[in-house]
Design a protein that fits this description.
The chain folds into 3 domains: 49 residues, no CATH class; 83 residues, no CATH class; 96 residues, Arc Repressor Mutant, subunit A, CATH 1.10.10. The protein has 11 helices and no strands. It is mainly alpha-helical. The radius of gyration is 23 Å and the shape is globular.
Length: 250
């Protein structure tokens, strides 16, 4: 293992300027490489203690993430316009251009992971869909603002509740007990971290996605609809519909 690391260091040292910081054209080509190659180069440079990497390594990784997400967004928008799913003049609609600004700002300021990006992107595409009127566009934009605030873990907890909601038999997992709910969700997710789900619960309740606990001692929950509110169901359905919306071949 040590020998392999030493060989890697020697290879990086021999290659000299692995990451061409001072050449914009070469750096642009470098950033087009697969992420694994970029990560290897950055890790190698850090292992050698290259001074420029100590200050800009994190920013470079974030820049790669942001660039790839924006490229993906642009590519998918182009395909959806060509399929007639998104109106070509979406920027002229009431919230179309604003929603574009919101999702670009979301990518640029947070460099989100794939799960958060997919959820926010779904609400963005729903907002500029060819079939929405002004009222639905306003509602979808509001949903977008809510989902932007959620973490990946909160989105996953919401998703699991929605899967239980869709599975009538699976709803037996949800009992009226507030104590058993996080245990059941954590088990369904697979990480079995009850208190992580309880942290997610607070954010989902605050955003009116799931019903808050019941009774003065907070011992009960509203187990109808797997605890999801009408707002939570709408958000989940919109994200689900986006998947069909994008993947359809017609």
């Amino acid at each position: 293992m040590t020998q392999n690391l030493d060989n890697k260091k020697d290879e990086i040292a021999k290659n000299g300027e692995i990451i061409p910081f001072n050449n914009a054209k070469s750096l642009s080509k470098f950033l087009d490489k697969p992420t694994i190659k970029i990560a290897e180069a950055i890790t190698g440079a850090l292992s050698l203690g290259r001074p420029e990497m100590l200050t800009i390594g994190g920013r470079l990784v974030q820049g790669v993430i942001k660039g790839k997400l924006m490229q993906q967004l642009g590519r998918e928008m182009k395909q959806l316009i060509e399929k007639g799913k998104i109106r070509e003049d979406y920027a002229k609609t009431k919230y179309g251009f604003k929603s574009l600004a919101d999702i670009l700002e979301f990518i640029d300021s947070e460099a989100p992971d794939e799960d958060r990006f997919r959820a926010v992107k779904a609400l963005f595409f729903a907002t500029i869909s060819k079939d929405v009127n002004d009222i639905k566009q306003i509602a979808n934009d509001r949903l977008l603002q809510i989902v932007k605030k959620l973490t990946s873990s909160e989105i996953l907890t919401m998703k699991i509740n929605y899967e239980i909601f869709l599975d009538r038999e699976g709803r037996k997992l949800i009992t009226p007990s507030a104590d058993s709910w996080p245990t059941a969700i954590a088990s369904k997710i697979g990480h079995n971290l009850k208190y992580l789900v309880e942290l997610d619960e607070k954010a989902l309740v605050d955003n009116k996605i799931i019903h808050e606990r019941r009774y003065p001692d907070q011992s009960g929950i509203n187990d109808s609809n797997a605890r999801l509110t009408d707002l939570g169901i709408k958000i989940c359905k919109t994200i689900e519909n986006y998947q069909d919306f994008y993947n359809t071949n017609d």
